[in-house]
Write a structure and sequence with these properties.
Blueprint: E1 6-14, H1 23-26, H2 29-43, E2 47-53, E3 64-67, E4 71-73, H3 79-90
Parallel strand pairs: 1-2
Antiparallel strand pairs: 1-3, 3-4
Helix pairs in contact: 2-3
C-alpha cells in the first residue's frame, strides 16, 4: 500500500490499559468510523482512517484530526459534521464551524 495523501485520525478515547473512557467514546466517535471509511471510498479520496487513544481535548470531543494539514476538529458527533469536514477537505478548505 502506498502512503495515503490524507490521514484522518478519530479519537476513540482509549487509555493505556486499552479501555475507552473519555468523552469522545461516550459521544459515539467509534460508531462514526464505518461512516467515515465509506464516505472516503465513495468520494474516491486518497485517505486512511484510524482511531486513536485520548487526544486530551475532551471538552471539544469527539475530535478528528486531518494530517498532513494538522487540522483539529471538535464536536464531530454526527454524519453531518463528518460530511462538512470531508466536503471542505475535498474543496481544499477548512470546516471552520468545527475547528478547535
Amino acid at each position: 500500500m502506498d502512503k495515503p495523501k490524507i490521514h484522518i485520525i478519530v479519537c476513540a478515547s482509549f487509555r493505556v490499559g486499552g479501555e475507552p473512557k473519555g468523552m469522545c467514546h461516550k459521544k459515539g466517535s467509534a460508531s462514526l468510523l464505518p461512516y467515515i471509511e465509506n464516505e472516503i471510498l465513495d468520494r474516491g479520496m486518497d485517505a486512511l482512517v484510524t482511531s486513536s487513544g485520548c487526544m486530551k481535548l475532551c471538552d471539544s470531543g469527539p475530535v478528528m484530526v486531518i494530517q498532513p494539514d494538522n487540522l483539529w476538529y471538535g464536536g464531530v458527533d454526527s454524519e453531518d459534521a463528518v460530511d462538512a469536514i470531508l466536503d471542505a477537505l475535498e474543496d481544499g478548505g477548512q470546516a471552520s464551524d468545527y475547528l478547535v
